[in-house]
Design a protein that fits this description.
Number of domains: 2
Helix content: 40-55%
Largest sheet: 6 strands, mixed
Structural class: alpha+beta
CATH topology of the largest domain: D-Maltodextrin-Binding Protein, domain 2
Oligomer: single chain
CATH superfamily of the largest domain: Periplasmic binding protein-like II
Radius of gyration: 21 Å
């Protein structure tokens, strides 16, 4: 649920990173072979950077496009600005205005496949040497019930984490090397930061589905869930779970007792990144990979003062996981599908498996001042991920020393998948509740959640 999105592991309930890290003997060459007898001239459009990306990021992408076109002279690649948004994606899909290669949240994969809205790219993907090496935990939603590939695990598999401004921590007299580890500590530090600096100590996404996404992430971290299943196909909405209420009460206290939360309820995924980069808030939760977007779109530098730590957990809770699939529009011709999978291989995956491609990509990104080495969860295996980082160690430019609160636990923390049914609709029911709590001191949380849960159950009964 993000820019590409934004995004989920699509696993109902908790998964361990042991599962994420298991499998893959991948390595070596990764170029996709065409299914066409002879290459023909073809042009494809591809999801490029987020709207508003800095010129340095555009330059890095263009460098890679030129390298791709040199490798495949018959293919012309035209990048387009792209941001997955729940409010616009359906219209783009129906209107046929998506690029040839586009990105979707993992949780949307199964539904789009079942609806016949993604191209069958099974023949092309299965010619990739690593087609059988994807972690099963991340590839299941890319396949249909027929076992065929209709999408490919791509970039940004992540877990939700806590991002913080180390400079503001220091100004408030807090130790930036000791970020909060509990929600009570987050509240305490947020108030101190606001009282000492005048800057909001905490920010909460509340615009569109992003607000619901982060409320669910917080509930998961507190040991709650918004959906259960009996394992036999029956799903029950639990939007009124005590953990959901607990976090809303927590937000209410920050807003109306402490005055330490950013009061604007028009912060979505992109907006909260901008506010954070602008020094308007000190802490917020989002995917652990956000640093890349902060550099790409907000121009953050290594010495800005960025910090990353694990989301607080309690009562057996875990970190919500997510990720992105790359898909091909269903109208694509055979030649376009061949070209599209070659691009997916080159742009998203070869740098994870092939040393030459890894170095080429890191070199291009580094030369353009883009983030190299942002912590992400492995699409293949932990061993392969570690190996690929070794290949590019000379180009890593992210402040890893300020991310230890996350990197020290990223392979051992408990992960929780997003709700597997009516995912985006569930988020849509919850963000108005977040907005109500932040704008109305007398908001009746029990009533708001009861109403949302009734609507949520109706959605599940229809799905």
């Amino acid at each position: 649920m993000r820019s590409s999105r934004t995004a989920a592991l699509g696993i109902a309930g908790a998964v361990s990173l042991g599962l994420l890290a298991a499998c893959s003997s991948a390595g070596g060459a990764t170029s996709a072979s065409s299914t066409s007898a002879a290459p023909q001239k073809v042009t494809i459009t591809v999801a490029g950077l987020l709207p508003g990306a800095k010129q340095d990021a555009v330059d890095a992408l263009n460098t890679r496009v030129k390298e791709f076109e040199a490798k495949y002279p018959n293919i012309t690649v035209q990048p387009q600005e792209y941001q997955w948004l729940a409010t616009t994606f359906a219209a783009q899909l129906a209107g046929g205005t998506l690029p040839t290669v586009f990105e979707i949240p993992v949780t949307d994969g199964k539904t789009l496949i079942q609806n016949g809205q993604l191209a069958d790219i099974d023949a092309q993907v299965k010619q990739l040497p690593y087609a059988n090496d994807f972690n099963q935990a991340v590839v299941s939603n890319a396949k249909g019930d027929d076992g065929k590939f209709y999408a490919v695990p791509a970039k940004s598999f992540y877990s939700v984490a806590l991002h913080y401004n180390r400079t503001l921590f220091t100004k408030a007299g807090l130790d930036p090397d000791k970020p909060p580890t509990t929600w009570d500590e987050v509240r305490k530090d947020a108030k101190i930061i606001h009282d000492k600096t005048g800057v909001a100590g905490y920010g909460m996404m509340a615009l569109d589905n992003a607000g619901g996404w982060q409320l669910v992430a917080a509930a998961n971290s507190r040991g709650g869930t918004v959906q259960t299943t009996d394992g036999k196909g029956k799903y029950t909405a639990t939007l009124n779970d005590p953990a959901v209420k607990a976090h809303l009460e927590w937000l209410k206290a920050l807003r109306w007792e402490d005055n330490s939360v950013f009061p604007d309820v028009t912060l979505g995924w992109a907006e909260i990144n901008q506010a954070f980069a602008g020094g308007q808030l000190a802490m917020y939760t989002s995917g652990s990979d956000i640093y890349t977007a902060l550099v790409q779109n907000q121009g953050l530098t290594k010495d800005w003062g960025y910090g990353l730590t694990a989301i607080p957990t309690e009562n057996g809770g875990g970190a919500l996981g997510g990720g992105t699939l790359a898909a091909v529009k269903v109208q694509a011709t055979a030649a376009e599908k061949d070209a599209a999978v070659k691009w997916i291989d080159f742009w998203y995956l070869s740098k994870l498996l092939d040393q030459d491609q890894a170095v080429a990509d890191a070199k291009a990104q580094s030369a353009s001042g883009q983030a190299v080495g942002t912590p992400v969860l492995p699409i293949f295996s932990k061993d392969q991920y570690t190996k690929s980082l070794g290949w590019i160690k000379d180009y890593v430019n992210v402040p890893l020393e300020n991310m230890k609160g996350y990197t020290d636990v990223m392979f051992t923390q408990k992960l929780v998948g997003e709700p597997s049914h009516a995912t985006q609709d569930t988020y849509a029911l919850l963000f108005p509740v977040v907005q109500a709590v932040l704008t109305d001191k007398n908001a009746d949380i029990d009533k708001l959640l009861a109403n949302a849960n009734t609507q949520g159950q109706a959605l599940l009964d229809r799905s």
